[in-house]
């Protein structure tokens, strides 16, 4: 029973802390195509957050003395702070530009006319907007 309670407690507390972080990550992640230093930092962040989660859980379940908990928690907190700072630095400097450039080039590589069609006025068949003549009947397409 006490374990269940601990699980619910640490789960909900960490969930509240982590959900905004994960949300931010998702939006930024969609902009990433290549492996970057930023990815590496994100992974480090996940690891350290996971470690803190485990530590909090063990402490709440009484497996750690308060002294040990505070000591380890302090070290992990300092480590996490460094990673957060690194991520912030990356996002506020050139690397964000790099992310944006990748996002833009990914958009450019998609055909602009994708999904657009011109309907043939003679036979009614939908042709790709890039076609000058109907693929079905050969009539000239109006754009
Ligand atoms: Zn046609």
Question: What is this structure's SSE topology?
Answer:
Blueprint: H1 2-29, H2 37-60, H3 66-92, H4 94-109, E1 117-119, E2 126-128
Antiparallel strand pairs: 1-2
The structure holds zinc ion (ZN).
Structural class: mainly alpha
Mean pLDDT: 78
Series of secondary-structure elements, N-terminal to C-terminal = HHHHEE
Biggest sheet character: 2 strands, antiparallel
Shape: elongated
Compute the CA-based radius of gyration: 26 Å
Number of helices: 4
Beta-strand content bin: under 5%
Q: Enumerate the distinct ligands.
A: zinc ion
Low-confidence stretches: none
Number of strands: 2
Distance between the termini: 70 Å
- How is the largest sheet built, in terms of strand order? 1-2
Percent range for helical residues? 55-70%
Features:
single chain; 143 residues; mainly alpha; two-stranded antiparallel sheet; 4 helices; 2 strands; elongated; binds zinc ion
């Amino acid at each position: 029973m006490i374990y269940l309670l601990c699980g619910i407690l640490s789960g909900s507390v960490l969930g509240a802390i982590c959900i905004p972080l994960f949300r931010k990550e998702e939006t930024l992640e969609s902009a990433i195509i290549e492996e970057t230093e930023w990815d590496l930092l994100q992974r480090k962040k996940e690891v350290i957050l996971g470690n803190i989660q485990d530590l909090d859980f063990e402490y709440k379940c009484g497996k750690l003395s308060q002294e040990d908990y505070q000591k380890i928690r302090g070290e992990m907190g300092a480590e996490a702070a460094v990673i957060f700072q690194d991520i912030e630095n990356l996002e506020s400097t050139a690397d964000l530009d790099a992310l944006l450039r990748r996002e833009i080039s990914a958009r450019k590589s998609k055909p602009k006319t994708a999904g657009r069609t011109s309907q043939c006025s003679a036979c009614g068949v939908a042709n790709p907007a890039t076609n000058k003549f109907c693929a079905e009947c050969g009539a000239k397409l109006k754009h």
